[in-house]
Amino acid sequence: MKAQKVIDKTRKVMKLLGIEEARLRREWISASEGQRFAEVIREFTEDIRKLGQSPLARRETAA
Amino acid sequence: MTISDIVDKTKAYYCLDCGICTGSCPVSRVTPDFSPRLMVEKALIGEAESPYDDVNIWSCLSCGQCSQRCPSKIDYPEFVRQVRKAAVTEGHSGVPAHRGLFQGVMRLQTLDVKQNKTDWAREAGKIAESGDTYYFVGCAPYFDVEFREDWAIDVMEGPRGVLKVLNAIGIEPVVHDDERCCGHDLMWNGDYENFAKLARLNVDLIKSLGCKRVVFQCPEGYQTFKKYYPEVVGELDFEVVHFYDLLAKEFEQGRFSFEPLDGVYTFHDPCRLGRQAGIMDAPRALLQGVPGLKLIEMEHNRENGICCGTSAWMSCSSCSKEIQKSRLREAIAVGAGHLVTACTKCRLHLNCALRDVEMDLKIVDLNDILARSIKV
Q1: ipTM of the complex as predicted
Q2: Which residues in chain B have their CB less than 8 angstroms from residue A52's CB?
Q3: What residues in B contact A56, CB-CB < 8 Å?
Q4: Using one digit for the tens of pLDDT, what is the confidence trace for B190-221?
Q5: Cα torsion B65, B69, B70, B73: sign
């Protein structure tokens, strides 16, 4: 419940800041579901890669 | 800046050791360990080995009650602001409230964000792409995320009220997605570097839009632009106007009136708006202009108004709660049924305390009252 609330708020803040929704994902995975965990993370990583680097990751030092 | 530079800059050496600052301080009243007088004294006699280690430097509300009464006119909030700025460069910091959510958002706004925060304005009224008047909304859309569901407070009532009233008197202001936080909180948190970045981004935005005046309702935004932005960007080439000043002038000229509203109301002066910006008559004139509304004053009002208990989303504690509850008791003591606030944060902070006590008191937003009863 608490996690859900934090996720909901984070999503709203991300929307206001103009950060793509797909950069945040919530999944319920039990400790015994190793395979599923790996699948989800692989998929999530792939999704993020497609989105490319966030403008927020561009720090001044990199400019 | 060393502590002796800060003493020189704020003329703290004029301290007469009279203690009126500590006697006036709302924090000292609840937490005797905190003493503005002692802090200045320590800096003057050079007793503190590292003055920036002192946790008390983060407890000041920068409400300015002490300076207002100081016979030597020492600018104590300025002293604290400089000490915090120096403390942060030495790696110290205060304790942020609300898990640091707002400071996080404010720091992200220093980067290349493409915000999406003006949908509410298009729904509530009319806004323009360009024009002479810019309405600086401030951080309310972000605060709304934190408080709407948890506390059942519609933070956006404030900005919606302002926009509706501006529209009613014939102004369609520019409201922009690229607007950043004014930097007030980061500055008072001691994070001057990021405050300066936000200041430059905001001034550049308004310049690029070609707006001639910027209207603020948020007392912190108003005061930060007016008093502290010139420190970063030099003199501003647009006018900084407070919404209530603008409105009171129009009201005086008979441009609009109000529908009647029943009840006994009292006005809580936000420290940035009242004591610091000196805007105390305009909100009262507007409230008194509402037929049927009875406005009464609490024991501490105008330049003696008590702070809402916490400032810059930092150091919220049981001391803050005590200050807030005593403020609510003042409203009850004079028989007010409604406590009117003119600052989003005052409204939230006083509501936070109201959740813990049983009091027959409603905390209402001045802009919401004005928007509901304005008649053109």
Answers
A1: 0.91
A2: none
A3: 108, 111-113
A4: 999 999 999 999 999 999 999 999 999 999 99
A5: positive
